[in-house]
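Repro:
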Amino acid sequence: MATAGTVAKAPLALVDEVLAPELDGFLTHLEVERRLAARTRAMYRDGLVRLQRLAAAEGVALPQAQVAHVRGWVAALRRAGLSARSIAITLSAWRGLYRWWGRDGLVRHNPAAAVRPPRAAKPLPKALAVEQALALAECAGAQDEAPALQARDHAIVELLYGCGLRVAELLGLDLRASVQARGWIDLDDASAHVLGKGARRRSVPVGSPALQALRHWLDLRPGLAAADEAALFVSRRGTRLTAGPLRQRLRTLAQRAGLPSRVHPHMLRHSFASHLLQSSGDLRAVQELLGHASIQTTQVYTRLDFQHLARAYDAAHPRAKRR
């Protein structure tokens, strides 16, 4: 019989494995009741596949798992080379599963509740400098592309940087408000209404450059979008734009703009938060605009703000540089 360690040595080949019905039911709960984002559900599914493999390798029925089993399985994942962050997400999926089973009386206790993941380093979020963000937006509005795609990309960059939207929030925007819409832009009110993590709705002001870019895109959108497509941003095929092509377009734009680092959509959200905090110093307002449930999540940007101040000090103060 395989051991937990040998099962965990290939923790990444998870997509094609079939989940037991009781595990698949938990994923349905996450989608329908919890309304978790598709990316989060995919990561949780990976965690459940790992749990299924590890328990099967030891012949343990999941409802009978004990704290010692969970500790051993976490240790096996660590030995297999899984990162601390991935283990933390996996444990979160396990805790949620047993909590859900406990709600229905299927288990007496949650064996994953007291197990902690290995401590992970917390790297600072990567943000562009102000001039880099502005250069990216300018490049998006002046690329050598079909006019409709150029207008779409420009509006996307302006919204990501100008409103601090998450990718899922941006791609979930519809052309107009409706009962089914996850989000929309109110041009008259100059605001974006989005559905964020945890199914929390928030409204974010939209600046004049983004509004101008949006109006230009809306003028050209009918030539690209399918007649019955509700999405604000569409692909070349006329259907709702997805995350993969968006990330690729942004990388291409960053290269054309001559930016030194690889740019991804969330980097523009980090840039929005960092630049806003540098200018205002209002951490609570930044928390509200980002849609963070906890102020602790937002506080990481104070470290970026300190780095900005430290660089300004090093560049300007006569006593800054040590000899």
